Automatic annotation (TrEMBL):
The keyword Signal applies. Residues 27-38 have a biased composition (Polar residues). This is DUF3558 domain-containing protein. Residues 1-18 form the signal peptide. It comes from the Bacteria. The keyword Hydrolase does not apply.
Length: 201
C-alpha cells in the first residue's frame, strides 16, 4: 500500500496516478472500438495509433501481468494483489526479501493521457524528469517524476489511447536484478499489460 499512497500523492501535485474504473463495463455486448478524444493529442504528444479498450484492467488490475510473468523478469514475489488507490483499483506486485515493489493502474484522473505530461513539460513546471522512451509494444511511453528520483525508482506512463495511460510506479531495493534499471522492469510489465489487453480486444 505504501507505494500506491505515494503514487496517489503525486497526482495531488498535478502528475498522473489516481485510478478508478474508467467507465469501461464488462457486459454481454462487445464494447465499441475506442476512438480518439477531440483535441487530443496536444502539446506535442504522439498520437496512439492503435487505441485499446481497457475493460480488463478496469475490472481486474492484476490481469496486467501474472505472477509467473512478473517473477520471470523481477524475481520471486511475496504477493500480487489488487488494492484501492484514490477511490479506484490498482495492482501491487511486492517482491520477496524486501526487494521492492511495482504498482500499476489505469490513470482515469487525467483524461488527456500522455498529453498531460507533455503539457507539463512544455509549461516548464510539474516535472523534474521527463524522458520519452522507445515505444512499448507499439505504444508511446514517458519516464517522468516530480522529485523522488533515485536508485531503484521509476515512474512510467504508457499511452493506451490518446485519453488513457497505464502508469507504473516502481521502487526496487537490494536483491532485485533490476535495481540499477527500474524503468527496464517497468517496461517489461507494461509489455505484459499491453499483450493481455490486445488479446481481449
Amino acid at each position: 500500500m505504501r507505494r500506491l499512497i505515494i503514487a496517489a500523492t503525486i497526482t495531488c501535485t498535478t502528475l498522473l496516478f489516481a485510478t478508478a474504473c474508467n467507465g469501461d463495463k464488462t457486459s454481454g455486448n462487445p464494447a465499441p472500438a475506442p476512438t480518439s478524444s477531440a483535441g487530443l493529442p496536444r502539446a506535442g504528444a504522439p498520437a496512439v495509433q492503435s487505441p485499446l479498450k481497457t475493460d480488463l484492467l478496469a475490472t481486474d488490475p492484476c490481469g496486467a501481468a501474472s505472477k509467473t510473468e512478473v517473477e520471470s523478469v523481477g524475481g520471486a514475489l511475496q504477493s500480487a494483489e489488487a488494492e484501492d488507490i484514490a477511490g479506484g483499483r490498482g495492482c501491487a506486485w511486492i517482491f520477496a526479501g524486501f526487494a521492492g515493489d511495482v504498482s500499476g493502474a489505469l490513470n482515469v484522473s487525467q483524461p488527456d493521457g500522455l498529453s498531460h505530461l507533455y503539457a507539463l513539460k512544455a509549461q516548464g513546471s510539474g516535472v523534474t524528469t521527463f524522458k520519452p522512451l522507445q515505444d512499448i509494444a507499439g505504444h508511446s511511453a514517458v519516464e517522468y517524476a516530480n522529485g523522488g528520483e533515485g536508485q531503484g525508482a521509476c515512474q512510467l506512463a504508457v499511452g493506451l489511447r490518446d485519453d488513457m495511460t497505464y502508469v507504473l510506479v516502481t521502487q526496487l531495493r537490494g536483491g532485485n536484478p533490476y535495481l540499477d534499471d527500474p524503468c527496464g522492469l517497468s517496461v517489461k510489465i507494461a509489455e505484459f499489460a499491453i499483450q493481455h489487453l490486445k488479446a481481449v480486444q
